[in-house]
């Protein structure tokens, strides 16, 4: 006999399912059909109760609408900031290529800025 450790149910050689010390026989023939039929009847009975009518609707609260508006505004502002950063990066790349940061006065200016920033 093998034991399924995940569920604790094993299949015996006789065809019974075991749950602990209890043998549970599988339904056969008409008995199995009756069980399936009972499930189908219960499903069909319940099925009609959940139908949607044309009158169903969803209402969004004023708070949710305000949050959506705020989120849209923040996204819009964030997109503007991203463009400014891209421009600054492009300007810095152009200055590096032109040799701006290799000049003596630029080196001193950058060094003084770092020194006065309090980061060191």
From TrEMBL:
Biased composition (Basic and acidic residues): 25-47
Protein name: Anti-sigma-28 factor, FlgM
Anti-sigma-28 factor FlgM C-terminal domain: residues covered: 56-112
Region (Disordered): 1-59
A family per Pfam: FlgM
């Amino acid at each position: 006999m093998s034991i399924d450790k995940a569920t604790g149910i094993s299949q015996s050689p006789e065809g019974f399912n075991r749950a602990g010390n209890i043998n549970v026989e599988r339904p056969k023939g008409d008995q199995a059909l009756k069980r399936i039929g009972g499930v189908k009847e219960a499903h069909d009975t319940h099925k009609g109760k959940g139908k949607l009518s044309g009158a169903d609707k969803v209402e969004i609260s004023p708070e949710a609408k305000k949050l959506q508006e705020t989120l849209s505004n923040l996204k819009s502002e964030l997109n503007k900031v991203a463009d400014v950063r891209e421009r600054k990066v492009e300007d810095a790349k152009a200055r590096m290529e032109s040799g701006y940061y290799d000049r003596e006065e630029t080196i001193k200016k950058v060094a003084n800025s770092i020194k006065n920033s309090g980061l060191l």
